Amino acid sequence: MQVIIYSTLFKEKDRIYIQELFDELIHLNIQFYIYKPYYEQLVGHVAMGTDVKWVENLESLSAQKIDFVITLGGDGTILSVVDFVKNSGIPVFGINLGRLGFLANIEKANIKQAINALNNRQINIEERGMLYLESNLPIFNGNMIALNDFTVLKRDTSSMITINTFLNGAYLNSYWADGLIVSTPTGSTGYSLSCGGPIIFPNSSDFVITPVAPHNLNVRPIIIPDTSVISFEIVGRAENFLCTLDSRFETITQLHQLAIRKNNYKIKLVQLHGISFLNVLRGKLAWGNDLRN
Question: Mean per-residue pLDDT for 173-194?
Fold first, then answer.
């Protein structure tokens, strides 16, 4: 088995868990590569064996068969690995060194057992749909996909904005609000949820449109098929607005014409046997627990 270790930031408090991961990989004779920017942070902090190999992108390993990408971090790390994996079809195995962990749901206390389960293929692989942003002007350096969500927001303390929204060219609504979120089912437990949006099961074929602090109180989140194309006209007193794809952001103007559609490929996430979306949902949101006592 060959894997890539991917993360964006080394923290000293996580060193013991990272060391446990490398020790187990070496013990099981699993060949691994390390994402180069992360490898450079680990040097001098973690023992990685004598035959350390790093990689900057998957294209440089085109002759190798990579079985899994193992991420170390939180959900944000998995969001950032999407551009690294692209359309390779390599499953992502998320070890949670962060906080909530809806996507990276392998807890750091279970690293040894999790790597053994991965090595023995005691896993399930889920496919998660993504969204694609179309723009008439270049933004995001051409990286136009998102696993969680797209947002358009007012900037700083400027007044609210108007977002005229269309479905497949037909007028849907004008949102007078601080912003608007278009979320995938995966992203429904993220920013959309905090703004009152619904939780959607990951295998659903939907998008959810959720307003951020709407001025017209009769407006509510709406679920639409992910076969729809959602386009926008943005109007406001300010010259600039904020546009985000997952954790990335760009400044846009009223000259930008934006549309959201379903991405033409999915990303694969690894789940251990016995761990399902229902398990994670109940655990993270403390459902079924009487918190009154």
Answer: 95
CATH number for domain 2-129+266-285, candidates 3.40.50.1820, 3.40.50.300, 3.20.20.140, 3.40.50.10330: 3.40.50.10330
Reply yes or no on whether the pLDDT at 271 is more than 80.
yes
Q: What is the separation, in whole angstroms, between the first and last Cα of the chain? A: 48
Cα–Cα distance for residue pair 134/126, rounded to 1 Å:
26
CB count within 10 Å of CB 189 equals: 25
User: Is CATH 2.60.200.30 what the domain over 131-262 is classified as, yes or no?
Assistant: yes
Measured between alpha carbons, how far is 169 from 162 in angstroms, rounded to an integer? 18
The catalytically annotated residue of 23, 51, 75, 149 is 75
Beta strands (DSSP E) in 76-122 are 92-96, 106-107
Q: Is 75 in the active site?
A: yes
Q: Identify the pLDDT of residue 100.
A: 65
Cβ contact 98:104 at 8 Å:
yes
